[in-house]
Amino acid sequence: MRRLAAIGLVLSGAAEAAPVVEACRPLVLEIGGTGEVVVGAEDITIDQTAGIAYISGYDRFAVEREADKGTVVTEGGIYALDMRRQDWPDAGRVRVADLTAEFGRDRQIRPHGISLFTDAAGRQSLFAVNRPYDGDTVKPVVEMFDVRDGALQHRATVSDAAICSPNDVAALDHDRFFVTNDHGACAGFSRLWEDLWGLRRSYVVYYDGKSARRVAEGIAYANGIAIGPPGEANGRLFVSGVRDEAVLVFEIAQLLAADAPVGAPLKRIDFGTGVDNLEWAPTGGLLVGAHSSLWSFFRYRQRWSETSPSQILHASPSGRVAEIFGSDGGDLSASSVAAIHEGVMLIGSVFEPHILACRLGP
User: Fold this and answer.
1) In angstroms, what CA-CA distances link 156 with 146, 149, 175, 225?
2) What are phi and psi of 254, to 5 degrees?
3) What is the pTM (predicted TM-score) of this model?
4) H/E element, 104
5) According to the model, what pLDDT value does residue 86 have?
6) Interval 40-93: pLDDT, tens
7) Is the CB of residue 111 less than 8 Å from the CB of residue 44?
8) Do the Cβ atoms of 67 and 125 come closer than 8 Å?
9) CATH says 21-360 is which class?
10) CB-based burial of residue 51 (10 Å sphere; 0-12 exposed, 13-18 middle, 19+ buried)?
């Protein structure tokens, strides 16, 4: 594992050492009741108190093939993995609960980024970017669920012209959230132009419970988003720019008070790699899923190659950044997220039919 250059950012928390990965092995997620395998577990967030990992996934390659034919039928879901079991990391295969099975009977569910919010009283809400289709055209929305007795109860669907290319979501409370639009253009050639030249045209949208508006812009492929660090009083928003190869940090109060979208972040954390989803480590610091070679990821994304490198980074409270996991993609291609609970780190990816379960050292 190579150690990256330190960055000038102080994060809340006491733990300084980066997690040490001792061993990883593939873990297939089997859906209880159907036996189907979860494909494309792109985002993972963990309820540390309950020991439940929430995992969003759907088979993107299958959906794209169907879209090319004019009708999309493949769906996915939000799944729950009970991490309190003692033997599951080494099992190779583990059963998960489909929390959106009932929701999917009435409407389409293809979740992307997710966010779990827990208030001081213990009430929980889960937000998810959803990508339903009308024929061959995606019509993205954000779904709001209440978490009750281990189940998800759908509360609202947010659809707004400002949310036209959502990637990830960060809940501010039970009704308000931030969401990244990974492209500035909603459709057409302009999106391809952004990708070809890495243009900084994507942005962040804030939904206040009634309407949505753009609050930050000038980002090259805005992707992961997180509020934190946990317990911090002043409130900051962390946004990963894949083509920026950086995480951009904004003050939430400034974003909400500004009359126009904020174009300059409070700080810029340069990682020198294609940063993806963001999660807070329970012992302190920021976990970053990443793509060490965006060209390799593009080739894999286009199905021109069979693998793409995976990378997980950790930014410590004082700003030291280390690569804690790196792979050529043979065990898991195109890692997008990492989340930790009690000595086990889960690594998800955009397209694979499994995740990685990694045991951590002391």
Assistant:
1) 10, 19, 9, 21
2) -65, -40
3) 0.94
4) helix 101-106
5) 65
6) 999 999 999 999 999 999 999 999 999 999 999 999 999 999 998 767 778 899
7) no
8) no
9) mainly beta
10) middle
